[in-house]
C-alpha cells in the first residue's frame, strides 16, 4: 500500500517532460505534524529522484511536534539536492520547530516582516517555572531535571545544526534556553540566515553562485533560468492532515466507541458496527502518530467500561454519568503537546461531554421503559393470561393457555369449558380463578334482559 501511495504521489507531481532544470516549491503552513512531515519528506525525495536543481521550502509555522520536525531535518540533511528554507510571506514566522528546520537547510532566507526563534521545548506541559507551591520537593526536582535534560538536548541539537551550516551557534543556543526571537533584518545581521528576499525569484537570484554542502558533495548553485514548480499535497497528505487533527481523531474515536457499543446492544444492526469499526481504526491510526498521554488513554478506556456496564446493568445514569466525566477528562489531557494547533478545542470537549450525557439518558430511558412494560418471557409472563378448562375434577384439572395444556388448581370447583385467569404459578402447576367475563351463561343473560 505504501508503494502504491508513493507512485501516486510521484506521478501526480512529477516534473513535466522536457523541464530538466527545475526548482520544486514546497509549502509548510501551520503546525509541523505527521501529515506535513510526510508531505515535505516525500517532496524532497521526489526532488532527489527527478534530479531537481533546488528545493524551496516556504514556511509559516508556529512550531509543532518534535518527532515530525526531526524527521524533516533528517530528510534535509540526507538530501543530495540543496534545500532552501524560506520564511514567507511577510507576517509569517518560523517559530520553535520551524527554527530547527531553517537552521538545517542549505540556504536560509526570510521575507521582510517575518520572524523566527522561540525554540524552547515544552514537552512536559509546563513553563518550567516553579514558585515552590506546586508539589513537594522531590516532584519539583524530578520535573526540573527532566526539563533541564530536554532543554540541553534541544540546545545541543540546534547548535550542531548551526555549526554544520556555519551559522550563529551562540544565538541558536539562546533561542533554545531563553526562547529568543529575531526579525528578518536582525536575523540577517546576526548571521542566523543567509539573506532577506522579497520573493522566490529574488531568493534564487541571491542564492545563485553560492556553494553549499549536500551530503558529502560541495555544490555550486546555478539557479539561472530555473523553472519553479509548485508541489501541492496529494489526496493521501490531505487525508492524513484531516485525520491527524487532534479534534478529528478524538471525534472518530468517540464515534467508533459508541458505534461498537450500540452494535453489541442490538446485534444484527450491522451499520453501527461497520461505521464504528472504521472510525475507531482511523482514530487509533491518528493517535499512533500523535503524542498521547497514557493516563488519558486509561481514562478513556475506563469511560468505555462504564458505558458498557451502564448498558448491561442499568444504574439509572450513575455509571453513565461517571463514564461521561471520565471521557471528558481523558479527552482534555489526551494529547501531550504545547502546540495550540495540536490540542483539543473546548467546543469538541463540550460536544463529547454532551454526547456522553445523551448516551446515559438514552440508557436510563430504555431502563425505565423496560420496567413499565409487561413481562413477556419467563415464568412471570404467565400471570394474568386467560385460558379455558380442558378437563376438571374437584379443585384440580387441566387448562389450555397459550396453546399449551397445563396442570392447574383452583380454590373453587370448575367445569369443562369454563374461562379462567392465571393468578400464580407453582412449578408446572398454574393457580387459576374463574373469569366471570367468560363464564356468563346465556340463560343468565336472558333473565337479566327481562
UniProtKB/TrEMBL annotation:
Gene3D superfamilies named in the record: 2-enoyl-CoA Hydratase, Chain A, domain 1, Nucleic acid-binding proteins
Every NfeD integral membrane domain range: 247-362
Biased composition (Basic and acidic residues): 432-450
InterPro entries named in the record: ClpP/crotonase-like_dom_sf (IPR029045), Membrane_assoc_protease (IPR052165), NA-bd_OB-fold (IPR012340), NfeD-like_C (IPR002810), NfeD1b_N (IPR056738), NfeD_membrane (IPR056739)
The keyword Membrane appears for this protein: yes
CDD domains in the record: Clp_protease_NfeD_1 (cd07020)
The keyword Coiled coil is annotated on this UniProt entry: no
Topology in the lipid bilayer: Multi-pass membrane protein
Top-level taxon: Bacteria
Domain NfeD1b N-terminal residue range list: 32-163
Keywords: Hydrolase, Membrane, Protease, Transmembrane, Transmembrane helix
Biological-process GO terms, alphabetical: proteolysis
Chain residue ranges for the region called Disordered: 127-146, 431-450
Residues that span the membrane, as ranges: 239-261, 268-286, 292-309, 316-335, 347-368
GO molecular function ontology, one term from the record: peptidase activity
Residues covered by the NfeD-like C-terminal domain: 379-433
First-listed, main subcellular location of the protein, grouped into a coarse class: membrane
One Pfam family matching this protein: NfeD_membrane
Compartment(s) where it occurs, according to its Swiss-Prot or TrEMBL record: Membrane
Protein name, entry field: Membrane-bound serine protease (ClpP class)
